[in-house]
Every structure is written in C-alpha cells, then in structure tokens.
Fold each of these.
Amino acid sequence: MGFTELNSVEHYIIHQMTGVNFNVSHGKNEVSEPKPKSFGIQWQFQSPEQLGRGVNEVLVESELVKALIRLNPEIEANPNLADEVIHKLRAILISVNQVGLVKANEEFFAWMTGEKTMPFGENNRHVPVNLIDFDDLTRNDYVVTNQYRIHHRETKIPDVVLMINGIPVVVGEAKTPIRPSVSWLDGAHEVHSIYENAVPQLFVPNILSFATEGKELFYGAIRCPLEFWAPWRVEDAQLTRAVGLSGVGAELTDLLSPERLLDIMRNFSLFTTNKKKQRIKVIPRFQQYEGANKIVQRVIEGKVKKGLIWHFQGSGKSLLMVFAAQKLRRAAQLKSPTVIVLVDRTDLDTQISGTFNAADVANVESTDSIKELQQMLERDTRKIIISMIHKFRDAKPNMNERENIIVLVDEAHRTQEGDLGRQMRAALPNAFLFGLTGTPVNKADKNTFWAFGAEEDKGGYMSRYTFHDSIRDEATLPLHFEPRLVDVHVDKEALDKAFKDFKESAALTDEEADALNQKSAKMSAFLKSPERVEKIVEDIAIHFMDKVEPHGFKAMIVTPDRYACVQYKEELDKHFDVAASKVVISTSANDDYEFKQKWGVDKSQQEKLVDEFNDAKSELKFIIVTAKLLTGFDAPICQTMYLDKSIKDHTLLQAICRTNRLYPNKTFGCIVDYFGVFDDAAKALEFDEESVQQVISNLSELRVKLPQAMSDTLAHFIGVDRTIDGFEGLEAAQNAISTDDKKDAFALDFKYLAKLWESLSPDSVLDEYNEDYKWLAQVYESVKPASDNIGKLLWLTLGAQTTQLIHDNVHVGNVHNLEEFVLDADVIENIFNNPDPRKTKQLEKELAKRFKDRGDLPVFKSLSERLEALRDKAEKGLIASIDFVKELCKIAKETVQAEKELDDELQEKTPKAALTDLFLELKDDQTPAVVERIVTDIDAIVRVVRFPGWQTTTGGEREVQKSLRKALLKYKLHTDQILFDRAYGYIKEYY
C-alpha cells in the first residue's frame, strides 16, 4: 500500500495525539488500544460514527450538555437549563452569515471563557456559565476525530477536528506530498479559502487551525491571510529541529496540548480593529507566546526581579507586551497588579498605546507627565499604565514599594542614557523590571545589563529570538543593501572629526541634528550641495520606478537634517507629482514662522500621513524624514529605504528594519546607501552578537550566485534545443520534464532563480542571461498546474519583473471581466429564502434576457410568456410580493432545468469539443496532452471577453481576436495564421 494523505500524515497526527494507530488495524471501526489516560488530560479518539452528531450540527450537543451539568451547580440542580444555553450558542452559530466570522467568534469566545452570565441563581440572580473548566483541566472532555462531515450550502470534510466538551476548537488539514510541490500551504489554502467560506459555522468556536504535509507545521487564526500563518517551535529545540514527521509530531503535540490551547484561548486571543476598521483576530506567534509566559512565570515565582528579552526588530514586541500585560492582570495570585509599559520617545507611544487601544484591552491609562505617574503610583492605581521612559529622570526614590508592580520597558537599550535604569529601580525598589529590545545589547553597555539582565539567564537574556530565527520562521524578511554612486559618498575623515563628540546622531531630536550639522558646516555644505542632491534624487527616481513601484511598494528617504528634507522634496517634485512625497519633521520655537507654517507636522497630521502612506491606493509614494519615524514606525508597504545620513548601531538596525515587515509579494527589504554607511557593514552594526553581522546582505553577493542558479535551472533541459521557436520548442521542453517529480524539481530551481532575478532586476549583469531566463519563465508558465490549489508554495505567481519580460513586445488590451450573474439552484434558493428586492429585480431581468437570447425554442417561449403574465399581475397589484418571489423562483428553476437539457443535447458540439477536434485534426499524434490545455485556455479567455452579439461589432471582434492571440502566444502558436483563422472561425460560430 502506497502513502496517501490518509494513511501517513492524518493517521500519524491521530496516533501522536491519542495513541490510536489506524495503520495496523483493519476493520472500519476496529482501532488499536489508545494510550492510557495520563494526568487525566489526554486527547481521546472517537470516529465520526461514535460522535453521534448530524451532518448539519456544529456542536456535539449531548457532550456539551453533560459538561454544562458537570461544571455549573445551578444547571446540575435543574438540567433543563442547559437547553437555554444551547439555544444561545446556536443563535451565535447561525448569526455568522449576518455579522461575519470574526465577530461571531468573538461572541462565542466570551461564552467559552466564562464571561457570560444567565439568570439561573436564586431569585433569577445572574451567575457565570462555564462551558470549560480552566482551573481543573481534568474535568473537561478532549476528543479528536477525523473526516468530520459538515454541511452548510455544501458538504465539506476537514481531515482532523479537535473538540473540548463537544465544541470544535481546532480544524486541521493534512496533506501528503504525493507530489513534491504539495506543501502545508495547500492545506492552509483549503482551510482559509474554502472551508471558512463554505462552512463558516464550524469556525465560530475556533481557537486556531493548522496545516501540515508531514514536513512543516503552520497554524493561523480565522480569516488570517496565509502569509501570516506561522510555524510553532518546540522550546529549546529551536535550532536542532528534527526533520519530517517526528519534528512535526513534537510541534503538534506541544501546540495542541489541552493546556496550551486553553491558554491561547483565554490569554492570547486578541480581537482588534485594523486600519480599515475591520475586526480581526490575532493569536500569538511562538516567540510572543513563549516570551510573555516567561515574564508571567517569573513574576508569579517572585524570586528573580528582572529579565532581558531580545526579539529581533519586526517580530512583534508590541503584541508580546499586550499579551503579557493581559495575562499578568488576570493572574489571581498577583492580587490585581499594576503593569507599567514604558516606551521610548513619542512616536513609539502612539504605536504601543494604539496596539492596546485597538485590542480593547481593559483598564489602560496613558500619561506623559511624571507628576501624574507619581500620583497614580501613590494612589496605588491597579491598571495598565503606558508612559515614557525618560519621565523617570525626575522620579523620586521609593515612589511605591509594592511588590506586584511590573514594569515592561520597550527598546530597553535606551536606558543606558543617563542611568535611567538605576533611577527606575530606586523609584520602584520592589517592582519587577523587564527590558525588551529589538537589537542586541553590547556587553560594554553595563547599564542595560545591570537594570534588566538576570545572572540566572544564559548569556544575560531571558528570551531571545534572533535575526535568523525570525527569517527562518518568516516573521520578517531578509534585508539587502545596495551601495550607490561612489562619487557622492562622503569624505570619511572630515565626517569622523565632526561627529567625534556625538556617539549616535539619530538618538538626537530633529533640532539637535540640525545644530550638529551647523557645527560641521563644511560637511553639511558638501552633503547638501545642490548638484549632489540632484544626482541622488535622479538616481532615487530611476531606482524607484524600476524596482519599487512596479511591485506596488513604497519608500522612505532619510536625509542629513530637516533642511535637507525640504531640499530633497523640492528636487523630487521635478520627477514625480507633488502629492507623491511628504516631508515628516517637527519644528521648534526657534524656527522662523514661514518654515513652521509650510513644513511643520503635528501628531494628528503625522498619524494621517502614516495611514495615507500605508494605503496602497493613495498617491503618496515617499516619506522624507531625518529623525522622526526611524523607530517604532510600522509600514509593511515600505520596501526600500534611501539612506543619506550617518547612523550607526542600534539606531541603524532599527531604521533599516522599517523595511523588513511582511507584505503580500514582498520578498526582501532594500536599503540603498548613498552615504556609505555600509562601506563597512560590519562596523556600522558593531554588536558582539555574531548573528547580527549577517543581518544585511550585499546585492553584489547575489550577483555572484546568479550564474550557478541559471545553470542549475537549465540543467533540467539537457539536449533541448532552445532556439526552436513556437509550439515545438515548448513541447520539447515539456517532454524533458514530463513527470510531476521532474516538473516540481524544475519549479524549485526556477523559484530560486526568479527570486534572485527579481532582487537584482534591472541590473546590467542580467543582460547576458535575458534570453535564457525568458525561455525558462515561459516553460514555467506553461507547465504550471492548472488547478489553483496545487503546490501554492512552489508554483508561485511570477514577480512583476519576470512577467514584464515575458510580455515584452506583446501588446494585449485590457480584458474587461464583467461581473456575471450566475444562475444556479443555490442562488435561486437564496432569493427564495431571503427575498431581497434588488436580487429579485436582478433575477427577473436575467430571465428576460435569457429568454430573448434563446429565441424561438418552444420551451423558453412558454416560460417567457409565464414571466410576462407574472409581471403583468404584479403591475396591476393582483399578487402579493411574497407570492411574486415564489412564482419567479419557480420559473427560474424550470429555466435552469430547460437550459441543462438543451445543453446536454448540444453537448456533442460544444465550443470546447469543436476546438478540440480542430486541434487534433491540425496536429500529429504527439500533441493530445497539450491540446487539452490550449483548448481550456482559449475557452477560459474567450468566455471572459465575449458578449451576446459580439460577432457583429468591430470592438467585440477585436477583443476576441486579441484574446485568442494571447492564448496561442503562451504555446508559441501565435504565428501560425491558418490555425489562427480556423480557430477564430470556430469561436465565431460556437461562442
């Protein structure tokens, strides 16, 4: 028996979690002995038959009723009350179609986490209702089942479903690599794009979903786009992860242990509002979960009073703080603690408090005055307080001596400035101090280690998540830098002299940076000489139009000081529309009035600008800054930073990481260096940590890798003559990679090559490989799996540069995809059950149009007459609107049936069948496999552009001819005029 989806991965998952081994049992319901219950918290396997639920039911209500009776004394005394709870829960499941999945999930979570009450107490007093016991986990019932049939509009069968007390909380999809290109992503696509839409009720109680193909395990929350699904790592085994099933098994049992799932449900599930005002659900990545829990654990144990957490820039520290703060506030043993979140600078304040506010975290106060902070602490405020770290400069000793105060300091390395760490410790002598940093702390920086580093922690860090971890887990993107234009680089000696007194200029405010530049007037004059700025901006314009804009990304420009920002803006306006760039700087009391009026940006304007920049549809393409927005600024759409300023170490690392956030189709962040900061990259990022030395890779390294990648990819086609044009050439290439294994091996090599190509393009080094690459890209396109859900990781959509190359010299007009009104049984049923005047009108119009198109066929004639009579009745008010809808739906059903019968009759000569005959007639016996694809392509393209009567309009004919040419081009058949004419003749006749 070979491997299948069922017998390897799905059965392995069940075996891992329950001890039941299907692969050694034979009868349908005969399974080997499960593991004995350990600690009473163990998943038990039940087959779909044993569950005793109907295909339309989401909950196993018999189990849920037992749990309600078991966990609620009031319901135990009167078991009939359980039905009332079940009715409430069913109402939420049904409401998903109206309110949407995230809101329904949020409402159901309130029930599952025990936040809801019912009037079941004495004298109808409201008491909390428990669906799950969080204190004694042995009192819950944990069941795993497989092939879980569920019906809404259609029936779906997810592979693995986990239930707690009869409530399905996890859905898993197991794929087996029957072909190499099938990956976890195909399973995730099925959960996210198919199941969540077809059977949304199943996901209303969902904690998380997972997908695996036995090599990697990824998980995500409901409605979470696939690029944000994340892997789960088993603690301490992060780097030595076992390969294949055993590695996945360890991760699965860890992630899906009942304790872990219930912890994620109760303490790590955030419902928050995104920039588009949509409700979204956020669950933690592994490093956020682990980091927050380490903080909570350390506070509860109460022995060690500090800890330093280093998680690389962009890996989600704001959320880690939200998770930790929430869980600390909930911990009963801490007796309502005060959690102080300290941020650095004002712009981080808006990011962190924004994260807390969007997630509706309870009891959050922000304060930016030490006096107010002092009052809060003296008044013994028990809340989450957000404040700024430098407010502790004026803090008095012993402001509050309580032990249950926990301070979380963001960007902790800044505490080295002016001994803030010591002042903080003096003000709150018994508090817990945790420092979070996105950049490693230098050993030389004694202050930060003194304040936060605990001797008990290996290497001084309580939790670390390095650059390599975050790239490996796809939490952030790799960074590339391009050194630029040597003739505009800076005279280093002059620079070092000028900057000798200042360790790190970007830690200065805008005004201080100006003052500094005035001190080094000579330097400043060179940096801002109009000729140099003009040259740089011209280069930025070319680079942006070639490499950034085609992909839909945006960019930041970092200039030496505020006046340079203005200078760059004025120069940039010569190349782009005025609205394409905005300057973001602060102004001070000493600035002249005109400068302030024109360029000053206050907090609310800045927030608007940032939102506009993040909006892919807005005209704003560049933000020009000098010190603002270099830290704590989150804009995933920003892919490139043009750097023309001296920054080093922490600030440099923070600044360049503005470009490493995940965004659709973005594969790396790019830094274009005009200043020469990276002339010595290792020196620019001088940290003791070896892992940081590799943070940024030079594009020249990629150039070196290109020839090898090209020859590896071409090696799949040894003996294929690449000079043969057209259909024959492509066919020879396809024959060289005729099996799925060969195709997928080629796709793997081509994917790597395409990544290099997109990173380097447009670079002259590519010129000599242009023809080969174009040929490979065309082969890749032509052998891509036809169905949309195979090999989503390997058979990716080609990048903008590659697509551009394939379509060079091919001018194809726009294809207007008019929204088609689909008429089928589901649509009619829907209109019948939910009469909507707009839809009813649309149905009526559609039927009239169809009858007209069908002409004189008797069956349609009589239906048409019935429709006329029905309309007539309605106009005269002789029929109730509900009866009108019923009758209309009846006519529609009969129409669909009549069309189906007619189509069956015409089946012998469908357009597709006719085209297939044509191609088989014109080609020899070698072609059948490809013919099917060509015909399918032509059929798909023509269906989109044709419209009734197109044959009699020049516009219609032109569109269809263009589409046909485009379809034939893919197979290099576009020059065969006889084929084109005959195919067009057929299309004219049959479409």
Amino acid sequence: MALFTLVPLAATIGFASVPLVAQQAPASASPTAARQAEVPWLYVNSDVPQEKAWLFGTLDNGLRYAIRRNGVPPGQVSIRVRIDAGSLMEEDGEQGFAHFLEHLSFRGSKFVPEGESKRIWQRLGVTFGSDSNASTTPTETVYKLDLPNARPEGLDESIKILAGMMEAPNISDTTVNAERAVVMAEQREQFGPAVRMGDATRQHFFAGQKLASRSTIGTVQTLAGARADGLKAFHQRWYRPERAVVVISGDADPAAMEALVKKHFSAWRGTGPNPSDPDFGKPDPDAKAVTTLVEPSFPTIVQLGVMRPWEQVDDTITYNEGLMVDALAVRMINRRLETRARAGGSFLQAQVQQEDISRSADATLVSLVPLGDDWHAALRDVRSVITDASTTGPTQAEIDREAQEFDLALLAQLENEGAEPGSRQADDLVRALDIRETVTTAEGALTIFRGAKRLFTPENLLASTKRLFSGAGPRLVLSTPKPLTNGDALAASALAEDVTSSGARKDVRPVSFADLPRFGTPGTVTARSKLSNFNIETVALSNGTKLILFPNKGEPGKVYVSVRFGNGYKALPANRQTVAWSGAMALVGSGIGKLGLEELDRLTNGRKINMGLDIEEDAFVLKGETRAPDLSDQLKLMAAKLAFPGWDSAPVVRARAQMLAGYEVMNASPAGVITRDLDGLVRGGDPRWATPSRQEVEALTPAGFRKLWEPILASGPIEVQIFGDFEAAQAIEAASATFGAMKPRKPATIDPANATTRAPEHNMTPVVRTHSGAAEQSAAVLAWPTGGGLDNISESRKLEVLAAIFNDRLFDQLRSSAGASYSPTVASQWPTGMDNGGYLIVLGQLKPEGTGQFFKLAREIAADLAAKPVDADELQRTLGPIQQYYLRASTGNQYWMRETAGSSRDPRKVAAMESLVRDLLSITPEQIQQTAQRYLISDKSWSMVVLPEKQTATR
C-alpha cells in the first residue's frame, strides 16, 4: 500500500500549500449500484480499506483511469498520465529512448504544432516546469499537468493535448535532431560525481540484472545515434492504451472529467500485440562482493547492499502489517546509529533503509560517511550496531518509542486529510501503480497500523531485522577521495571480518518538560488589534513581545510557529566572516539548559514538536510545525531556547566535520561553484552571504560558536507568529506563560555599516571561477543590481514579470532552438528586509565554448525588452501563471506567514501585502519596457563564468 512509506529517521530527529478554509469538496455521487458492486481494478486481490472517493474505470481499448474530486487548491485540476514503460524496457541500442520520447511528446504532437503546448498552457495559467513536467524512471514514464483555474474549455483542451502526446507525438528526423541537443545538454549538465557513484553502485548491487546497465538518461552513443525510425518503433511497442493509466484529482465534476477521458483517449489503439515486460533478472548470490572507486570531490563513503528477489505480492492488510514491523526495525537501528554519531563516534552519519527498487530487488541498503579517513573503523562500528540488532531483540520501550512516532505521523495525515492537495493524491496513486500496490484513506492506514501493534514485540522485531539483513550479499561499494592501494582486498577483508555486538545498551532516564528551566511570572496582554482587513490579529504582551495570530481551519491539525528575534544579517558584520553559517547545523542541537539533543528527542517523542533556524535580512528565525494539543509545549521549547540556551560542544564539532567532509563537493561542478560563491559575489563580496573558506571552517570552535550566538539569542525584539488550526485564547495563554514571562528585550541596535549590503562593480570581462568537474561543463551568469525594501515594493512586482518574460525568451532561444543549455534561468530577487541587495540574474549551464553565445543572447534579449513594449499575448502568457501562483499560494498558511512576518515591527509590511493584487493587475507592456530601461543597463551589469580547471589552465 503506497501510503506506508518509511519516514526516514533523520539526523535531526524532532529538530530539523493548502486552503485557509476547509475547501475539500465532498466526493461526487457514487457510481451506479452495479459499478459499486464491482471491485475496482486497483483493489483486485486486496483487502485494504478502499478509497471510495476515486472513480475507477477501463476503456474498451484497455486504458484505465482513476478520477476524484478535490478542491485543494480551489479551481485546480491535477492530471497524470502514466505509461508503464521506462528504461528497463529498452534494448541495448535504445538506451535513453524512454526519456527521449518524454521530451519529444512535449515538443509537439498530433494536435499541437512545435512548441505550442507550452504557450497554450501558459494562457491557461500553467507555469512550465512546475505545473507541466514529466519524469522517466526505469519502470515508468509519467506526464504531469496541474491546471489552475480549470474551466471546462481549458480542461477539455488540456486532456485533448495529453491524449495526442501519448498517441501521436511528432517524431521526425527534424524533431529528433532538434531535441537531441536538449537531451544531451541535460546529460552533460548532470552532477558528474553523483552520476559516477550512482552508476558504480547500480552496476555492483545489480550485477547480472538489466538495471545494472540502464541509466535513464542513456549513453552518449545511443543518444547520438538515435533516429526517428528507432524512436517510433519504441513508441509503437510501449506507448499503447493497455499500458496507460490516466489519474485526475481536482476541482471539477468527476463524471465530466470521465467523459473527457473517454472522448479523447477512446480512439487510441496500439500497434501489434501488447509486449510482455522483459525479464529484469534476480540478484546473483555469487556476484562479486566488493568494488572500490576514487571520487576526489566526495568524502569517503561506504555503501552496503543486501539484495533479495523482488516479488509481486497481493497488497493485503497482512502484507502491510509486515511492512510496518520492518519499518519499525529499520527506525530503531537508525536511531541507534544516530545516537552514536552524535556522541562523536567513528562516523559522521549512517543510515539503513529498505527499498523495493525498480521491480528488480527487495534491498536493504546501508550508507555511512566516516569521521576522517578511517573507513574501516566506521564500517566496523556500524556493522556492530546492526549485529547487535540482529542478535538481541529490542526492548519494549524502544519499540513503543518508534511506534508512537509512527502513530503520530499517521494521525497527522488523518487530521489533515481534508486539506490534502489533489496533486499529492494523484502522485500517490501513480506511485502505488509503479510498485504494484494500492492506496487507502488516512483513517484506513491508521486503523491498519493500530491493529498491527499486537505484532510489535521484541521477538517479531528481531525476526524482521534478521530477514532484512539476509539475502545476496552484503555487497560493498567503497568510494575514497584518493586512490587506495589494494583497495578491493582491504574492503573484502573488512567485509569478511567478524564483528561483535556493539555491547550493552545504556538505560536512559526519563525526561519531561518539568526538566526544562522554569520561566517567571506570565506576561499580560496590553493590546490587541486586527491586521488590516484580514482575519489576522496582533497581540502585544507586557514585556514587549508581539504575537501575530491567524487561527483557521484551512489545514486541519497543523499549526505553524515562527519566532523572529534580533536583526538577522543586519546584526552581522559586513566586513568579515563569522561562524553564523554553523547556526542552522548546530544551534538547535546544542541543547536547552542541561538537556542535550538526545534528551530533547526523548522529551518530544510521540508529539509533533520540532524546531529549526533560519537567518533573514532583518531577523533570526526559529521555525516549527506542531498540533494544537502540543502547541503550549512547542512554544515552551522555543522560548526556552532563547532564554536558557545550552552549549553542548558535540553538535558544533560535528557541524565542522560535516562541512569539511562535503567541502570539495562544491568545487566539483559549475552548479556547485555557483552555489558556493554567487550569493556573496552578487552582493559585492559581502561576507555575510559568502561561503566560509576551508580554513575558516577548520577554525570553528565551541567557544567561538557560543561567543557569536549567545548575544544573538538574547537579542530583541521578539515576534511570534502562530498560524493554523488552534484557538486564539489557548495560544495567547501559552505565549504569555513562556515568551511573555521572559525579561523585556530592547530592540538590538543596528550598525549603519551593516544596514545594507553592496552591489558588484560593473565588468565587461567576467569574473572567472573554476571547477574540478567534467571538461565539457561550464556556467555563465549575467546580473543587474536592482533594489530592495518596502517603500518601492511595486517595483519588485514589475521586475518579477520582467524576469519571467526574459526567462521564457531565453528558454525558447537557448534551449528549445539551440539546445545549448538544458535549464537556463532568469530570476529577480528583491529583499524586503533590507533597502538594497536586489538583483535580476540570468544563469545558464553550457559547454565552455558556449559562454560567449550565452552573454550575447542574454544582452540582446535585455536590449530588446528595453527597446520596445512586449506584445499583449506575451504579457498575458506571463502574468497568467504568476497570478495563478499567488492565488494558489494564498490558500495556504505559510504564504500569509511570509507576507506578515515582521509586520509588528514595520507596518509597511501590511501595505505591501495589500498592494500585491493591485500591482499585478495594473502592469502594462509599457511598464515592463520602462522597468527594463531602468535596470537592464549595459554599464551596470556584472558577469561571471565557471570554467573547467584544465581548460582555464590551458588558456
């Protein structure tokens, strides 16, 4: 059952858009009594509780469909067309064809000329890439469309286009040659180290199976050799109605949507007999046990795999109960591994997961990153934890702890079921189809889980663990940054070594909220007021703390909390690097009072309480997501972090080690270098946004960490936002007893030198950075400084539209026409918490010899936008998706949190929020031209290239 996916036990356990009124429409009237009596095709041989909201059917040509009503977000209809064919269906000479066909289908088809589907859908408010996209895996190809504001005529046209894409894409030598460059650009722009690691692991773990040699993207040779007749043959063989499923979930009548599926898909016929799936093979128990490789940009990584044959099973309650026992066994091992890593063990991180992979294997996978170079000791320690779990059953207390976490996750799904987006429902059903399972209701999932608790015994968990680590293997992949002499022999010896149990398990003392430091006398409410015309309230407490409250039923069971304090980047020096970068990695983990992260995990077990840190231009922010029953303690924990911070050194040491372990990864590709350097460079080298150097990372100490963060945590003012499903009186009482009971905090002063950032100096010769990756990879950046702040916020909306038009033109010319870059991007950044620092940026990944063409084309587009107004259709095709984005986003709590954040300090935030719709509706072609003339000035631009190291050295 697809609903029961294992939620990984992350390294930061417990600390790490949907409508604002209950808009989930009721399910449509049930089908006829005769159809109700039939077992829907998804549930054949299954006894799991059926999701009755789905309308299932099968056309005469064999195409199956599943359709349901869903009003989240209002007006949207999510359509998925799944073809049961992926890279595992390819012959050796066809590698990459399944993915190539995905591209060709979007390019043009039976009812749509070349490139016109994107424009048609833009006119219907669709954003290309996020609302319309596709994906190819080894076992399937899925076409995705989220159609906002889905009126009958637009829905009819969209389903017609999708039907034509499946039945008759334009496959000719002309289209194949044109799209070949795009597909090969996508292949070229992949992250090389990850591709090499993935290929090596797949080839080793699946030795003797078809998956070992099937990369979804294909090979340079097969892509270069692809011809129209070969791609047509693949399409005719695998694109047929018997292998297709249409899934629709959206805000429309299911009967009307069913009629459209019948109207547009019924005439589709396959060519010849429906082929059987090829034999994917089974894991070879005699395959080689170890393989080693050298990947200089990665830290040392060890991966283990225990492989079992994949078997199709009936998706029954009994089967799912077994999956739940396995999931608990995996969670317990992962918690033990994380506890050892936190304590400063031999490894930075380690994780176990069980996964059915591409209908090729039922696999238990282990991955670990050693602390330093001693991979042998790290492997031994991880295996000792697994050996312990495989030889001695867990305690009932351990089982209960994981069961409580699992129960809470399923309960939260039930509480929020009415606000589940249609896109997620459609995706979940598609995923169930791929793994040959079903879907059920949130209530059904919770009922099955609670019924399975009788199986959660030490004996059953021990048996599950033994089974999970039985099979072909273990197989080991060892990747090191430097060559390892006799690496295979060393790895084989380490794998063959007898490993004893990790030893006696420590008893842990109980922890309760009474162990947190005590607050003083609760504060009192001194003022309450409505925030403009919205049902959002501002509450002032007697110590100066401000609350912004928005109780609503839009996301049942969810409450979002955001605590803003201090001055963010404005509080950091603009002339030197600090250790602020380490805050997100270590500040929450450093504890509260005398309680460390392990104790805090136990404290919040079985409850939805969590916390993470962000830094914004004008505030530091603690963020969490909780439920109404846990809101009081969520606020208590967040307030205690500010008032009584702990300073455990272990998370700081681990953060430093993690940063150093991954440091070279940033140098391994153009995208990595841009991620590392661009934020600082585009702000004139401002160190607050710059990635610290390796030497600066190495210099991080617990004492230095505390020196920076202790005064920041004590800074004011404090603003607490609480949005979601709660009662205002409850929130005010809880906040008054925690944040309101703290000592008053005066607003922290801002050094004028830190109040703004810088703009990069204009250059005609680009700044050059280098990367250590593939010689055919490079990137180019062109940027213009704009502005920031709230006084001229309408300018940011015009720049957003200008950037979207620029992006569309660049995409059409650089990708669709030239195939020079797979994912060119144009974006506008306008900070509202700082009065400058905004920019419009153009970015593309290309071949090194293509950077000149990129700059020439980008400057030509900029000049054209400044020279004349855009035409009305182009403006509407741009504005429509932007307007729909805001309409959909505004049905969710997080949108309103973002818009009101800081409004208790600065009332201009409210005016900015109110002006959004007016600004977007009033934009004209002439205003876009004037905006381009104002900002896209040739002698204000700044540029950068990232080139391969070897080529740069040669130059």
